[in-house]
Amino acid sequence: MAPVGGVAGSSRSAACCAVLLAAVLFFSAPATTEAYDSLDPNGNITIKWDIISWTPDGYVATVTMFNYQQFRHIPAPGWQLGCSWAKKEVIWSMVGAQATEQGDCSKFKSAPPHCCKRDPTIVDLLPGTPFNQQIANCCKAGVIKTFNQDPGNAASSFQISVGLAGTTNKAVKMPKNFTLRAPGPGYTCGRALVGRPTKYYSDGRRVTQALMSWNVTCTYSQFLAQKTPTCCVSLSSFYNDTIVNCPTCSCGCQNNITRPGSCVNDNSPYLQSAINGPGKLTGQPLVQCTSHMCPIRIHWHVKLNYKDYWRVKVTITNFNYRMNYTDWNMVAQHPNFDNITKLFSFNYKPLTPYGGRINDTAMFWGMKFYNDLLNQAGPLGNAQSELLMRKDSETFTFQKGWAFPRRVYFNGDNCVMPSPDDYPWLPSASPLTKQPWTLPLLVFWTVLSTLLAYYV
């Protein structure tokens, strides 16, 4: 019986080791859902490559990038689209965009192509481009807005004439290895897939279609975009004097010894030279020296308590000396957003990421020509608004941090929240049992503040 028991024991040990190894591999394996965002589950940028005509040695195509993300846009200095040719294709000409490098075109004796590189990088043209070099949805410096904020500018297009590519559907090959920088890393693009030919409606009575269409889907991952977060959240309330600051080192730590110039103070004599330093060309942020070291801080303040309503003040502060945030947006999640009554100085749109069953997510952005531009760090580097929300008697409470947001995004990036243990708490009633004489005074001030809030 001993050998049998030994074999059984060995089997159990082997099974335990196998389970342990599987667990280690499971928890150490890279996450496969890094690009998935539960607040925007279908968000992506889709690239449509439509062949609209054949040429003697290739084709002419219209390429359009559609931003299907609800709250993430492509800011200045804009997108850069890269790919690799499947054969020995060249770009004869472009309208609405240009390749950043021409490459080696020495084998062409007469007029050289626009680009001969095997892996071209394409960028949008700037506003003010001559009309004969434009097509629809081009020439916006690569900036693509979100559909919620500006549906008329949620796409970007250009036209490309490709040579040495074949002149039939069977001969032509799809480009490979698509990359999208917007303007830095963060997007991962899949391979090009043949789709239904795109249809074009000219005058409402005639419909034409592309000879061939390819689709490329690019998804965003904040983990790929930057190593550290880009924003944080601080909290305060009228019922507690405590101000909960952003967690220390939310977006990095001050370390001018190993990383000189990582931050700078307002009164620094080197401020202007640091702003215009080498990092300006690459878009590298230069942040004001703070405990959190974040370019953006969002402060949520529970301001007033009325009989049937309550009021919140939101302040967005820019600590980045090198960046003006144009057409910024903020997304927040709170269970009382289904009862937003009035909003001051921000635009607002509810988001329903759960199929419309729950309305607890809202998108806010600035008003055009008023506060849609969040200036760089300094006296004007902030935007403010207030939210008035109706109370739901079944759910409303100031206890256990209910009045504060669950998640906050800025320009599509998830912000660092304080620990729930640090949230402002309601004053304890226990001292009343030790000092009964304070009860009438507390009742008086409570009644007075409620009456003022109700009638003022």
TrEMBL record:
<protein>
    <recommendedName>
        <fullName>COBRA-like protein</fullName>
    </recommendedName>
</protein>
<comment type="similarity">
    <text>Belongs to the COBRA family.</text>
</comment>
<dbReference type="InterPro" id="IPR056900">
    <property type="entry name" value="COB_C"/>
</dbReference>
<keyword id="KW-0732">Signal</keyword>
<dbReference type="InterPro" id="IPR006918">
    <property type="entry name" value="COBRA_pln"/>
</dbReference>
<feature type="signal peptide">
    <location>
        <begin position="1"/>
        <end position="35"/>
    </location>
</feature>
<dbReference type="Pfam" id="PF25079">
    <property type="entry name" value="COB_C"/>
</dbReference>
<keyword id="KW-0325">Glycoprotein</keyword>
<dbReference type="GO" id="GO:0010215">
    <property type="term" value="P:cellulose microfibril organization"/>
</dbReference>
<dbReference type="Pfam" id="PF04833">
    <property type="entry name" value="COBRA"/>
</dbReference>
<dbReference type="GO" id="GO:0016020">
    <property type="term" value="C:membrane"/>
</dbReference>
<feature type="domain" description="COBRA C-terminal">
    <location>
        <begin position="230"/>
        <end position="424"/>
    </location>
</feature>
